[in-house]
Every structure is written in structure tokens, then in C-alpha cells.
Specification:
This protein is of the alpha/beta class. The protein has five domains: 100 residues, NAD(P)-binding Rossmann-like Domain (Rossmann fold), CATH 3.40.50.720; 32 residues, Double Stranded RNA Binding Domain, CATH 3.30.160; 56 residues, Helicase, Ruva Protein, domain 3 (Orthogonal Bundle), CATH 1.10.8; 116 residues, Cobalt-precorrin-4 Transmethylase, domain 1, CATH 3.40.1010.10; 130 residues, Tetrapyrrole methylase, C-terminal domain (Methyltransferase, Cobalt-precorrin-4 Transmethylase, Domain 2, 2-Layer Sandwich), CATH 3.30.950.10. 37% of the residues lie in helices and 18% in strands. The protein has a six-stranded mixed sheet, sandwiched between helices. A five-stranded parallel sheet has the order 3-2-1-4-5, sandwiched between helices. It has a five-stranded parallel sheet with strand order 10-9-11-8-12, sandwiched between helices. Helix 7 runs antiparallel to helix 8. The longest helix has 18 residues. The protein is elongated and about 95 Å long. The two termini are 48 Å apart. The structure holds S-adenosyl-L-homocysteine.
């Protein structure tokens, strides 16, 4: 972080603006919104600017800048078109340890001014650290369109009740959960539609109700195959309001990073012994956290109900009456297929698709292979890398042609995605030669051929 963001209380503070034109005027207007006393120095000063300064009880000096002008100023902004003056102001202010901003010259600044969305008391500041003010402004307008102007009223309303909630609810977690539901539900709705009395009534009622010991909740959330952009809105919202996140190896670090900063993160992928935390232990952790009244998010790669043991994890919760919900995610087959340019079904080549586990017993007869060799279907194997040779051999032995196209997708949808294409006969040897890393997905069927036309990712094709 190049600049540390702060919100500065400038009410009644003396600030100096050097410059007398349109740019100085913009900066002075901002300072006046923050209640500062504004002093202006410049040989020429436009009338609006002088008016703002006088209205704020500041002084207007129609002359060149002097070092003495800096005396007792909390903050200094140089907005002249004279480079030498700007440099001098910056040097003098820095020597006095006074915060200084020189418009359009980040090198001379000790602070920079962000793009601002003003829904006072709610204030949002966006900065690109001086790298691209245009980008910062674009982001500002996007945020502006998402946050109705009435949000200022909502923030004010919350401000009125803050102390009361603090008195009534003992822990920070309780208070946060209370505010989250208040700000998403009918209370916010009433404030935003201009009915503050109704809002106060609902508010008091829900605060009273909150005293009952509420149980926590477990959300089984599908995190998708890797690319954080493939997360659902719901997954993101729950992730950002969770007290505890349990996640495993398949969930990208970038997704875990999206959780609230102070949420507890528990890795249940591989313990020190390099073994995954046993399923029963994970189930018990979910129960224990929820019984403490916490909001628990159990993040699972892909979709929780596709080879994700999601059913097992919620079974006990259901028996114990602990509230839970399941949020679907994009499963690896969908993610890998889309990013590798392989449609899983196609009117001409495959009318059905099967998701099959490639985690086989030694002899491999736990699968009904004769069902998997029919034409016009795509078969996707999860967890099949170590059995690739066996899978291909069994498909051939049960009647699928040796020339049937097969793709193996490594770490699909991530920057480490690799796709190797071959056929049932040639692919195992090729994959053995290359250093392929888990997780990988195996796609078998004529649709694999379509990657030639449809793929925009790097694809390696075996000869
Ligand atoms: N619930 C998950 C699957 C869990 S089983 C889902 O719906 O996707 C784990 C297997 O998923 C891995 O062995 C691998 O076959 C597959 N997998 C998960 N993420 C993957 C990815 N990004 N690329 C390729 N395969 C992936």
C-alpha cells in the first residue's frame, strides 16, 4: 500500500490553498464541505474562491506565496500552474511536517486526494495511488450507481442507535450480526424510504428479540473450480459475513482472502501429518462452532453436492436441528469444460454427460464400465489422475474405440490451467511424460474435438 487511507476531521481547522483559479476552487469547495477554515494566497483570485474562503472565516491574500503563510496550517494544497511555486510550497511544508498536496504532481505530495462518494456521514474514498485518476473516477461512478443517496440517512440512523446497541449486546460478534441483519432487512428499507419512526419501532422490537440466545448457522458454500470470478454473489455475501471459515486444499487462496479480515480461518485440507482432517472431525467442528452462536462458512471446491461430501457434512447438523443452508457452486466439469473450449453436450456429438468418480478400487470393477462406453455421451472423471491408465484401458476393453478423444485439464480456470488432448490409447503415456499437477479432470468423448475451434486457452495436443 503506497498511501495509507485516513479520514481527517477538518472542522474548524485552518487550511491553506495556494492558487486562485478553477483547480484551486475545486479543492477549496471540498475543504469547505468538510468544515475547514480556508485561507487563499495567489496574485489573482477568482470571485467564487474568495467567497468560499470568506464564508469559512478564512483570509484572502492577493499576492505571491510566502513561507510564513504556512504558519499554523493543518493542511496545505498547492494548486498553481507555476511549477516553481508548487515545488517551493511542497518543500517548505514537508520541512515543517505539514501534510501537503500538489495538484497533479504525486511526487511533490505527502498526501493525495481520493475520488469521493459523499453520502455523509457515509463517505467512500477511492484512490489509485496517483497511478490512474481516471480509473479511480470510473470506479467511483460505479460505486455511486450502486449506493443510493439515501444511504447517508441510513448511516445517520445507525449513528443514533450505536450506543444503545453497544449497551444491550455484550460481544462484538453479537453486535455485528445484529447490525448486519438490521442493515439488510426491513429496518433499512424503512429508513431508505423515508419512514424513520417506523424504522425506530422495528429496530427496538428486533433488539429486544435479539436477547434470546440465537444458535449459529452453517453455510455449505460452493467456491467453484478456482477462478474467484466464478463465485456466486451469495457465496461472496456469506463469506464476507462469516465468523469462521473452514476450507480445504481445492479452494483458491484468493477466494479465502475475500473473507472478512477478522474472520477465523481454519484449514481442514491437510494437517501436519499431511493427512486431511478426518471427515468426522470436520463435522464435529461445524457443530461446535455453530453451537457457540457463530456463523460458519464451510467452503468447498466446486459444488458441495458433487463429489464434495456435502451431504455427509449437513446430515448431522440436520439431526441436531442446527440451521444450515447449501449454496451451489460451479463444478469442476463446467468450469474446466468452458475454459478449455469443450462443450459437455452438443446436438451432433453428445446428448448426455456423466460425472463419474475416478477414485477406484484396485481392480477398478466398482464402476459399471459397459454403461460408460456408449456413443453420443460425454464422460467426465473426477479424481482420476492416478488411475488414468486404468480408466482408458477399461473403456477400450469394454468397447470404446481407441481413437476416442480425451482431454485432461489441470487446475482448470486458474492461471495454471493446462489442457492436454489425446485419445484413449495415447493419452496415458503422454500424461506420464509431462509433469501434470492435481487437481485434474478427465473428459472423454467426441466433444473434445471441438476444442480446436472453441478454445482460447493454451492447449497441448499429443501427436
Ligand atoms: N466438489 C468438487 C469436486 C471435488 S472432488 C466440484 O464440484 O468440482 C475433487 C476433484 O475435482 C479433483 O480430483 C478433480 O478431479 C476435480 N477438480 C476440482 N477442481 C478442479 C480444477 N480446478 N481443475 C481440474 N479438476 C478439478
Amino acid at each position: 500500500m503506497k498511501h495509507f487511507p485516513l479520514f481527517f476531521d477538518l472542522h474548524g481547522q485552518h487550511c491553506l490553498v495556494i492558487g486562485g483559479g478553477a483547480v484551486a476552487l475545486r479543492k477549496a469547495s471540498l475543504l469547505s464541505k468538510a468544515g475547514a477554515v480556508i485561507h487563499i494566497v495567489s496574485p489573482e483570485i477568482n470571485d467564487d474562491l474568495a467567497f468560499i474562503a470568506e464564508k469559512s472565516q478564512g483570509q484572502v491574500f492577493r499576492r505571491a506565496y510566502e513561507k510564513a503563510d504556512l504558519a499554523d496550517k493543518t493542511l496545505v494544497i498547492a494548486a498553481t500552474n507555476d511549477r516553481q511555486v508548487n515545488e517551493q510550497v511542497s518543500k517548505d511544508a514537508k520541512a515543517n511536517n505539514q501534510p501537503v498536496n500538489v495538484v497533479d504532481n504525486p511526487d511533490l505530495c505527502s498526501f493525495i486526494l481520493p475520488s469521493i462518494i459523499d453520502r455523509s456521514p457515509l463517505t467512500i474514498a477511492v484512490s489509485s495511488g496517483g497511478a490512474s485518476p481516471v480509473l479511480a473516477r470510473m470506479i467511483r461512478s460505479r460505486i455511486e450507481s450502486m449506493i443510493p443517496s439515501a444511504y447517508g440517512r441510513l448511516a445517520e440512523f445507525v449513528g443514533l442507535f450505536r450506543d444503545k446497541v453497544k449497551q444491550e449486546l455484550a460481544t462484538e460478534g453479537e453486535r455485528r450480526r445484529f447490525w448486519e441483519s438490521a442493515l439488510e432487512g426491513p429496518i433499512a428499507e424503512k429508513v431508505l424510504t423515508g419512514k424513520p419512526e417506523d424504522a425506530s419501532r422495528v429496530f427496538e422490537a428486533s433488539l429486544a428479540k435479539r436477547h434470546d440466545n440465537q444458535p449459529g448457522e452453517v453455510c455449505l458454500v460452493g467456491a467453484g473450480p478456482g477462478d474467484p470470478d466464478l463465485l456466486t454473489f451469495k457465496a461472496l455475501r456469506l463469506l464476507q459475513s462469516a465468523d469462521v471459515i473452514l476450507y480445504d486444499r481445492l479452494v483458491s487462496p484468493a477466494i479465502v482472502d475475500l473473507a472478512r479480515r477478522d474472520a477465523e480461518r481454519v484449514y481442514v485440507g491437510k494437517a501436519k501429518s499431511d493427512h486431511a482432517v478426518p471427515q468426522q472431525e470436520i463435522n464435529q467442528l461445524l457443530i461446535d462452532y455453530a453451537r457457540k452462536g457463530l456463523r460458519v462458512v464451510r467452503l468447498k471446491g466446486g459444488d458441495p453436492f458433487i463429489f464434495g461430501r456435502g451431504g455427509e457434512e449437513i446430515e448431522e447438523l440436520a439431526e441436531l436441528g442446527i440451521p444450515f443452508q447449501v449454496v451451489p457452486g460451479i463444478t469442476a466439469a463446467s468450469g474446466c469444460a468452458s475454459y478449455a473450449g469443450i462443450p459437455l453436450t452438443h446436438r451432433d456429438y453428445a446428448q448426455s454427460v456423466r460425472f463419474v468418480t475416478g477414485h477406484l478400487k484396485d481392480d477398478g470393477d466398482d464402476l459399471n464400465w459397459s454403461e460408460l462406453v456408449g456413443l453420443q455421451q460425454t464422460v467426465v472423471f473426477y479424481m482420476g489422475l492416478s488411475n488414468l491408465e486404468k480408466i482408458c484401458a477399461q473403456l477400450i476393453a469394454h468397447g470404446r474405440a481407441e481413437s476416442t478423444p480425451v482431454a485432461i485439464v489441470q487446475k482448470g480456470t486458474t492461471p495454471e490451467q493446462r489442457v492436454i488432448i489425446g485419445d484413449l490409447k495415447s493419452l496415458p503415456a503422454e500424461v506420464a511424460k509431462q509433469k501434470i499437477k492435481a487437481p485434474t479432470l478427465i473428459i472423454v468423448g467426441e466433444v473434445v474435438e471441438l476444442h480446436k475451434k472453441l478454445s482460447w486457452f493454451n492447449t497441448e495436443v499429443t501427436p
